[in-house]
Each structure stands twice: as structure tokens, then as C-alpha cells.
Amino acid sequence: MQRFTGTNEALEFLAWQLKAGQLVAIPTETVYGLAADALNEQACREIFAVKGRPLIDPLIVHVGSVAAAHRLAHWSPIAIELANRFWPGPLTLVLPKQEIVPDLVTAGRPTVALRMPRHSLTLRLLSGYGLNLAAPSANPFGYVSPTTLDHVKVSLGDRLAWGLDGGPCEVGVESTIVAVSETGGVGLLRPGGVPTEALEAVVGAPIEDLRESAAEASTEGLVAPGMLARHYSPRTPIALFVAGEQPKVETGEAVVWQQRPREAPAEGVSAFWLSEDGDLATVARALFGMLRQMDSLPSSRVWFELAPEQGLGRAINDRLRRAAAKR
Ligand code: AMP
Ligand code: MG
To answer: What residue owns the CA closest to ligand 1's atom 10?
Structure first.
């Protein structure tokens, strides 16, 4: 993989590679994406091949403006309100799709997932060159998402020609995904960078959690797969414990706290922390890098302290639970 920084020449070159159907690793504020022209079915097929992603798992399409997104989906008033409030940013809207979106991208669904990211380099690629980019996280399917271009290089560097370096990701966990029905109902498909509380303040009502019904329906190929229980998975076994409790650590294991612990770890136990003071934005930013780091340790098991179940803590805990799910 050849790395580019965000000069005008590099962006122009990468935009033409994308238009020619090539894949490029791109920075976003959530995680690094493996991008292809969303309207080029052959290029999108290559995304699935490189990631080893099953074709039943639909891709998120990244757009450079709300106007560009209108060509790809049918918009209800509440969807427009959500985009106006949270775009560019870590909110993905699942909306009824327009004809031009390839079925491969939506895994045959009548809906398409759309997001306008807020990383300045990727925004310049999208809006400066009129691109719509299908981009799942740039990691082999099921492994931990990348939050630096180095992470991308380690796991996909041999299979990918081009990468755009935009520095470490500002948010560090993926977007919040909501489905907006034609009648204006808003349901949660994945907790992420925009807290549910912030969405509820705009919608003016509690947001229904669709995760369980989506998971059930997916076995029949109806609603959303990708909400797979096991995901974000390092090779070292992960165990979880509730915030404020003591984990049952044994010698040779490691503990990862939400914030710097006051006491030294027991003999033979390694201790790490995701933030100094428990700030959830800091924890989210550090989380995937920590999961990767734990894979390079000799520890036989790593205990992660869960975050409080509020705000960004919901997305953090969702990723931790999936990282810990049984093989
Ligand atoms: P990511 O793996 O971060 O690229 O996120 C993609 C996820 O978005 C998929 O695994 C699905 O769960 C969800 N998604 C994408 N498109 C749709 C859709 N049309 N309907 C429901 N969920 C979708
Ligand atoms: Mg992913």
C-alpha cells in the first residue's frame, strides 16, 4: 500500500483512481474506510473480496453533501432534519433507495445507508470530485476496525494499492446507524459516535431499539445483518466487568480500565487504561487501538472494564461486548 498525505495533487490522483474503479483507504472521523465508487458495482464487489465480507452485509455510502444524498435516496422530513443537525458527522441514515444505487451495495435491500463524514480530506475527495464512496471499515471482516493508516497497512497493506493518511481518527468508533421509515419512524440499528440522547432531543421521542428485531429478521435475510454478535474481535480472549467492580484476574492476564486506576495491579497482572479521567470521548478514541495492542501481548486473557451505559458509553460497550462474544 502506498501512503499519501492530503496535498491537492494526491487528492486529485486518488479521486481519479476511485473514478477508475480502484479502492483507496480513506480517513474519516469514525474509523478508516475501504472506499470505492458507490455507483460502480464492479469496484464495490472488490471491497467485499478484499475484506472477506459476506455479500449479505450492505455497505454505507459516504456523500459530500445533503444534495448529493438526494440523488441516492428518498428523504422524509425527519430524515432531512437529522441530516441538517448531524451532518457532516458520525450519523448514518438508512433510507428508501433510489434506482441508481447498485443492489450489490445494499445487499438487495430496498434501502440504502448514507452518511456525510466530517474528516476534511475525505470531504474534499467527496465534494471536490463529485464522488459517492461506499466504504466499510478497512479491516478484514470480523477483526478490529482501524483508527490509523498504520492499522490499515498491518492487516490489508498487501491487498490494497492506495491509502490516504488523515492522522488518528477523532471519534474512534463507527457511526450511529438509524433507520428512518417512510412514515417518519426512527429506529436504532447500531449505537455509535452520535449518542442516542442527542438523536432523541431532535426527534422529540424515545428512539426504538431495532437491534434485536433486525438480528432476528436477518436470519431470513430481511432487515440488517452486520449486527453480528461476534465482531471487533482480537485473537486474545476478552472478558468484561461492570464499571466500579473488581475483575477476577489471574496471574498472566491483563486488565484495561476506563480510567487510570488508583492502585497498582497485583503481581503478574498487567494494567492499562483508556483515559486519565473516564472521559468517554477519550475512551472511544483509544478503544480500537487498545484492542489491537492487547493482541500483541502474551496475556492469556484481557479484562475490560465496561463504560457507564449512557452517551458514547453505549457505543463503547456495544463494541466491547462484541469483541468478547464467544468464538
Ligand atoms: P459498517 O460495517 O461500519 O460499514 O456498517 C455497515 C452496516 O450498516 C451493515 O453491517 C448494516 O448493519 C448496516 N446497514 C447498511 N446498509 C443497511 C441497510 N440498507 N439496511 C439496514 N442496515 C444497513
Ligand atoms: Mg466494520
So the answer is: 226
